[in-house]
Request: fold
Amino acid sequence: MSIPTLPRVFSGVQPSGLPHIGNYLGAFRNYLAMQEGHDAIYCIVDYHALTSTHDAERIRQNGYEMAVGLLALGLDPERAVLFRQSDRPEHAELAYLLSTVVPVSWVERTPSFKEKKRTQPDDINHALLTYPVLQTADIGIYHARYVPVGRDQAAHLELAREIIRAWNSRYGDVFVEPEAVFTDSPLIKGTDGATKMSKSVGNTIDIFAPEDVIRKQIMSMVTDTQRILRTDPGRPEVCNVCQLHRFFGDDFETIWEGERTARTGCVDTKRLLADRILAFFAEARERRLEIESRPGYVEEVLRAGAERLAPLAAETMREVRHRMGLGSR
Ligand code: ADP
Reply:
């Protein structure tokens, strides 16, 4: 089996909408940092998106958006592999093979499955239940050790380790036990100030939406709900706007103090945050336009990425099939 010379990294992102600052602060920052000194593989996980969307055009379009977004943010196809999950269908085969050692109770207890049962009660499909097994296959097929993700993925990563241990103990040590890698902001709250920023909740601050949309998203943010009058002192420790300033400027203490002493109002702090977020992503937003002006470029990157991974995926599958007693001797 080929041992990568650099530590291997894998992570996937669903094509379920535009990239938002929760994705960036919680995961993409590490995607970019880990292009250095690692053998990094990043994937647009369109099979996973099918667990919540059955609109073919949306899956395709969102996959493209996510790929352009990552490239614009600095993902460099010369240094890291970017590909679309469905272009390497071995992931699905491996998920099936892994699922044969996974007790149903393990997947039934995943917090994300329980959450989906609540949020999409009319579409509790079978693939939702086995989502973590496919995720294990995504990581395992390339023997990745490090998985940069947000905190919401911690339980999945734990389960991936359990699944890999279960398979390895039955068939031999083929798979590497992966480790989650978090940023210093692994859980960014949404504009509602209450729940995780997420495309599916619709509480995002988008990176590549038109400027007026981004400003509107930020101006709609829930701040400190106990601060009624402009002259009331605020509680920066519970105010999501103040918390986000931590990442988009170097005067966080001043902003904190301004809010705590009522020197500044929520509207001022939001306006400043909007200006800073737009300035922070200005270059990426420019680069996105430039990438979009090159017809076929994104498709070519994704195609080349999938092709580069073909030998690795084939090698793992050969080994797994052999050890599981499939095919001829
Ligand atoms: P979403 O939850 O918006 O559908 P994805 O599931 O596609 O986003 O997440 C892509 C990556 O971004 C994952 O590693 C995920 O853990 C991370 N991520 C998503 N939302 C947040 C958030 N609010 N805070 C921190 N990380 C996040």
Remarks:
- The radius of gyration is 21 Å.
